[in-house]
Amino acid sequence: MTLADPQLLTGLGSALSIFLASTGSAIASAEGGIYALRKKGLTAFVPIIISGVLAIYGIIISILLVGKMGSAELTEVNGYRHLCAGLAVGLACLASGMGIARFLKHLNVAATITSDDSDRPESEPLIQRERRAMVNENFVHLALSLVFLEAIGLYGLIVALFLIGK
Question: Are 57 and 20 spatial neighbours (Cβ–Cβ below 8 Å)?
Fold first, then answer.
């Protein structure tokens, strides 16, 4: 009798990869939807598209893990590796989604600040000055920031692929 069933561990890894990656994607998509509502044009949907890619990372690993479940070479060590692979991609995508959501939330809050700052004193808090400066956002800066935040999930996918393969 083994300590843990390798098929159970692989199934848990598969479930966790989908659940955590989709949670990160949903958190980022919620703030991306608010961003899209206040912007005009097709470029407003870039945060939502990038957030959706995080869920795809979890699906990729989950499909690979389910394919390994019926394998005759499934040992206890491989079960633990598959569980770690699911956790690696899931937690990385969750962290990436939370980072994207936090970044977009700052942009959304900054856009609600009124632009009539001619009567504001120069000694106002630094945070408010930074938020007013963020209102004039640039699409290139937005896209680069989102790509770098999404790279965290991609790193989790790469680690998971190394853990699954021998």
Answer: no
Cα 38 from Cα 45, distance rounded (Å): 11
Q: Which domains occur in the chain, in start order?
A: 6-164 (1.20.120.610)
Tokens of 145: 């920031």
Other beta carbons within 10 angstroms of residue 103's beta carbon come to: 19
CA distance 15 to 59: 10
Distance CA 123, CA 135 (A): 20
How far apart CA 55 and CA 109 sit, in angstroms, is: 26
CB 19, CB 90: distance < 8 Å: yes
- Rounded to whole angstroms, the Cα distance separating 9 from 104 reads 36
pLDDT in tens, the chain (166 residues): 456 889 999 999 999 999 999 999 999 999 999 999 988 888 889 999 999 999 999 999 999 999 988 877 888 889 999 999 999 999 999 999 999 999 999 988 877 774 445 555 565 566 665 555 555 668 889 999 999 999 999 999 999 999 998 6
